Amino acid sequence: MKNVPKIILGFLLVFTLGCTQNKKPKLVKPTPKPLVWHIAGLPNWFILSNSKIIYKRWGINIFLDGCSGSIEGIKSNKKTAKILEKRHGKYWRQVFETAVDEEIVNRYSVIDLVFNAKEVLEIQKKFNVSKDNSNTRVMFIGKNRYAVLVTWFDPSEENKQIPGQQLIVNLATKAVTVSNGKFDWRRAY
Q: What tens digit of pLDDT does each residue of 123-152 get?
């Protein structure tokens, strides 16, 4: 019976030590609100469609603010510009514009590589279709890598079935390979 109080005392000691050494709960950082850039007036749609990828990479949502813009849009752009200056430096606008220009060049390089790929040339020859009656969807998927969906239409025969081709292009190696991956082509340009 003498051992019973020691066991209880030992249990209480371990229990209280376990309770007193509680660690502070880790605080979960809230997800930052995405940045928004307001575009006033009629944008250049060619540049806007190619810059959407860069906006997305930089974590910026775009908002078309109408022909004359808004005071809220100007205020929001000033706040966003300060944040972008902290992230990308004083010349963030030039860095952004250079990234857009590079993306435009990359897009045309990707399309040139695709239309010289043997798989695409075989389909064009087999179905007697050309680059002129094709649609391409290009999607950035990683450094120097793009997914491309090429589809054709025959203006003379609406019911003609022409298979589309899904490809992966690596600009660094100039390699074009067939892909069976599943992509959300709605976000492609």
A: 889 888 888 888 888 888 888 899 999 998
Helices marked H in the chain — which ranges?
A: 3-20, 45-57, 71-88, 92-115, 118-127
148 conformational bin, left if phi > 0, alpha if psi -120 to 50, beta if neither = beta
Dig out the tokens for 46 from the structure: 């060619």
Q: SS3 for 110-162, per residue? A: HHHHHHCCHHHHHHHHHHCCCHHHEEEEEEEEECCEEEEEEEECCCCCCCCCC
Distance CA 71, CA 57 (A): 26
* Of 20 and 85, the one with more pLDDT: 85
For strands 165-170 and 60-64, give the pairing. unpaired
Q: pTM of this prediction?
A: 0.65
* Percent of the chain's residues with pLDDT above 90: 37
CA angle 175, 178, 183 (to 5 degrees): 110
CA distance 52 to 49: 6
